[in-house]
Amino acid sequence: MESSTPDPKKRLLLHICCAPCSSAAIERLRSEYDLTGFFSNANIAPEPEYWRRLSEARRLAAELEIPFVVDTYDHADWLACIKGYEDEPEGGARCERCFAFSLSHAAAYAEANGFDLYTTTLSISPHKHTPTIFRVGHEQGPFLDVDLKKQAGFQRSLELSREYDLYRQDYCGCEFSLAQSRK
Ligand code: SF4
After folding, report:
1. What is the CATH number of the domain that holds 172?
2. What Å distances lie between residue 130 and 30, 75, 136, CA to CA?
3. pLDDT > 90: what percent of the chain?
4. pTM for the predicted model, two decimal places
């Protein structure tokens, strides 16, 4: 009698922007993919905020038992990338460059480490334009189009944040979004 072995899951690198967004993303993707988290957020300022978000994302990944990789934090490099676009409103050209910065790092890591695909938790936010994320993602590498805000993904991230007692920031990440949130 022949026995059939199920196809192995594809290896998916999940760019993680923060713990709350990653919670529902991991829940949704882990049954179909062999997941690894990739925390790459050189956009975050001030620096203590970066370490706080990293700590929470790492804690959640450990609780959910997925591998977790941390990228270099180089905010000066990120500032050079968005130079000239500092005063753009949130959702504009600065954010597109910001997506490209993080996703280029994720795509490079995915390629260097044998992943089949990569994607990002960024699409779970109702404040972020999914078609722009997808376009920028494909420009960097083998991107998986998954719109995490669909199927009530953002709502689920709120529920899981309460369940895991996750820190939820009140601004997107960079100093420009922080200043805007305090107006
Ligand atoms: S508002 Fe958010 S997405 Fe836009 S540049 Fe700042 S950190 Fe990046």
Report:
1. 3.40.50.620
2. 21, 24, 10
3. 94
4. 0.95
